[in-house]
Amino acid sequence: MKKLLLSSIAFVFLLSSCGSKTKGELVGVQGKKWYPEKPYGMELIPRGSFIMGKSEEDQAKVLNAPTKTVTVRSFYMDDTEITNSEYRQFVEWVQDSITRTRLAILADELGLGPEDGGIGEYAFKDADTTKLSAYDKYMLDNYAGMGETGFEGRALNKEEDLIWDISEYPDEYYTEVMDSLYIPEEESYNGQRTIDVTKLKYKYSWMDIEAAARSRTGSRKDFIRQEELEIYPDTTVWIRDFEYSYNEPMHNDYFWHDAYSEYPVVGVSWQQARAFCNWRTKFKNDDQKSKGKQFVNQFRLPTEAEWEYAARGGIEGGTYPWGGPYVISDTGCFMANFKPQRGDYAADAALYTVEAKSYEPNDFNLYNMAGNVSEWTNSSYDPSSYEFVSTMNPNGGDGANARKVIRGGSWKDVAYFLQVSTRDYEYADSARSYIGFRTVQDYMGEEDSTQ
Known about the structure:
The protein is of the alpha+beta class. Among the domains are: 47-83 and 281-442, paralog of FGE (formylglycine-generating enzyme); 93-198, no CATH class. Helix content is 25%, strand content 12%. The protein is built from ten helices and twelve strands. A four-stranded antiparallel sheet has the order 1-4-12-7. Helix 2 (84-110) crosses helix 4. The longest helix has 27 residues, at 84-110. The chain is globular, with a radius of gyration of 27 Å.
């Protein structure tokens, strides 16, 4: 009885001591102080208004970009197009995950664990139940076997390095898994073993917030979308985009060779670009979680309005990111990589693409917002969209419209397409040798002008 009384007194004291910090006032829940962190390789684009559309003469007479004053919120944007090196990081992560998953599944089917060596060293982490946390044990006991394969949600062992040298494979089971990742021997040549890139698929889910917000019925799960797609760039675009043209060296080397690491990735569809954004968000937030930090906002493709605002670099009414109206500087140098002088590709010192940090950046410190490669945006293309989109953070998003806006012009385009107000489009499932992308991230809070 005495112990019970003491416990009650201690509990009441604890409650009163917690309340004493607020002194009975409404002070709100005290969270951690939030300090915005500038993402690596990005620039802060401050909020602002601008005249979107063709303020200069519409030489092509397409009549799809009437001027309209719009306002956009602050956001971060990659200072360059996503490079081959950066996209390869995505591809290698997917390859690593698929390989480890296949090894773990076979080890599980064989009943092998870390103590058995060989492929057992790559077993799911829950294979050794003595090292499971209470949460992991609960999930294993209650949710094991759920999902399409029955292995969803089980943690991979990423502490053990993968072995790629065939002479060092630990056992026949490991060999079986690794061999399944390569193209058949009859399809290889020159003695090269090549990964079957059609097996490099990225699976993710996302929630259709706009559909959910406008719906009056249905549960949350009705608006969760599942995506799975091949993520390796289509290198054949260098051949298919141009008839009667010799471009095999670009097909063979452009994506994977170190000589092109800092060049913009191409051959990536709008859908693949969106998958990259999802992976980049997951990759960053996995690291944030491991450090006990708050999650960051998602990375995504820019809206058409955000892209044009960023491309203008704060220059009101400019024809190009550097202002204009000319594409040649006062020293006689071309300001971007495009097709000048009636088709002289080499006149601007580049035949195809150039490194992502080439030419001078605009006043927002963004490189190649004109030329080099055209860039995917998140917006769907509608010739009349400027007439109906909002004046605040406008976005012509339409899931049913497969035509997606591309901006900026490319190495194979004439100067008209380099203009910051010129609109063009391509289909979401298409990949081209002249289309790449860059990502953005929303800025949380009210930005500091010194940030």
